[in-house]
Amino acid sequence: MGEIGRPKPANLIIGVLSGVQVLFAQIGETLEGYFGEIDLRSNIQPFHYTRYYNDEMGEGILRQFFSFERLIMPDEIAAIKIKTNALEEAIASEEKYVVARPVNIDPGYINESRLILASTKDFSHRIYLRDGIYAEVTLDYRQGKYESFPWTFPDYKSSEYQEFFLLVRGHYVKKLKGMKG
């Protein structure tokens, strides 16, 4: 029989989608207030992988990822998803923007072997966590690179995203080593 143990902490990442470029700085500041210092930010880049969000978010959607200095325990991701959903709703309720959904905020985490995303949507490859939140393994880390699955979103398969995730993973491994020393 295996011993029940405590998992290693993980590196929180949050992906932000928006067609309102000025929101990225505001969201970054708000997220730092919630989750601590951002240690890495991806470039803001065009989101051209799907038109899925265009009806709610308009044209010209952009993407940026944030990585956080403070590590989280994996079971914190459900509460984090609830908090980011509330932030999305608060920004939309301000009705300051011409689109119904000015921002999409997607939290997840990176550990040594995978990238996990939190979701409010159930599907065959997602595991229920709690309070209406599910998790999926989106990318698998093997032999120095990330590998996708049939359900992996097209943008997460891109070399641009994966380069950032590899950078985050490298920082994460250093953080773990720092905790042991």
Automatic annotation (TrEMBL):
Instruction: Please give the organism.
Output: Kuenenia stuttgartiensis
Taxonomic classification:
Bacteria, Pseudomonadati, Planctomycetota, Candidatus Brocadiia, Candidatus Brocadiales
Protein's UniProt name:
GTP-binding protein
Q: Which Pfam families does the protein's record reference? A: DUF4416 (PF14385)
